[in-house]
């Protein structure tokens, strides 16, 4: 009965969130989305049962003038015997003359569904985004273009978000809308995110971790990232990813997308480091840049009372 109720709830939430989607500019993108779930789903915070601090930095389209540069620093931890989760995050994103600096607070309630580690989490996100444009740095063909008469504009844009996250020791699934309030100033609207992944044990030393990340807006194609990497002896991992339109796996020249490689290492039980490189396909920018680089660093504080958590935290 509990399982049927959960399935109905998941379907209901997906339906309701889908009904709210409207046109939007694209949110910041990360290849390490499977490590950076907090950025899009507040229900994730505290689910790993450790105090976790993580940073991701992405430099996109290297060599292309004005290309996106994005960095994030986040913290999340369980509270009160793991029933609640708390998180804080900072994100800086710069694309040409436009930059934004966002601070977010996340809270989650974790409901234990089974004794074998299944949990259903409900999350809320509050965000303040300082948005700034500086058109004075642009070299215009028409210096008197009316569209760029205001050299610099600044605005503080508040927002709220919601998320549902279901996780088990072997798989997870989440649906979220991290920014519910639309803003005319930056033409931002709601995004719907669907995430999912699993852990497949091939043998005692090798595990496979596939994952999927779907981002949807009404006025843009539905984007989908599919990643899979092998974990060797719980020490290091190696794999690849593809980014394309929903319903496809390999990007094509007409639709666009990208492919990439990723690798990482668990330096010890506390520290994990990852790197990814991806290359755009099927759009005009790929001819003029050297691809995109991204690095990830995570530190888990495992306190004495949590020494019972012996297995690695994969999700």
Describe it for me?
This protein is mainly β and 315 residues long. The protein has a single domain (2-302), classed as Porin, CATH 2.40.160.40. It is 6% helix and 51% strand. It is built from 1 helix and 15 strands, in the order αβββββββββββββββ. Strands 1-2-3-4-5-6-7-8-10-11-12-13-14-15 form a 14-stranded antiparallel beta barrel. The chain starts with a helix and ends in a 14-residue tail after the last strand.
- The amount of beta strand, in percent, is over 45%
Kindly give the count of domains.
1
Query: And the CATH topology?
Result: Porin
H/E element order: HEEEEEEEEEEEEEEE
Helix content bin? under 10%
| Overall pLDDT | 81
> CATH superfamily membership, which one?
monomeric porin ompg
Radius of gyration: 20 Å
Salient structural properties:
single chain, 315 residues, mainly beta, Porin, 14-stranded antiparallel barrel
Question: In summary, what is this structure?
Answer:
With 315 residues, this protein is mostly beta strands.
Note the topology.
Elements: H1 2-20, E1 51-59, E2 69-79, E3 84-95, E4 98-112, E5 119-134, E6 152-167, E7 171-177, E8 192-198, E9 200-201, E10 206-217, E11 220-232, E12 236-245, E13 257-266, E14 271-281, E15 292-301
Antiparallel strand pairs: 1-2, 1-15, 2-3, 3-4, 4-5, 5-6, 6-7, 7-8, 8-10, 9-10, 10-11, 11-12, 12-13, 13-14, 14-15
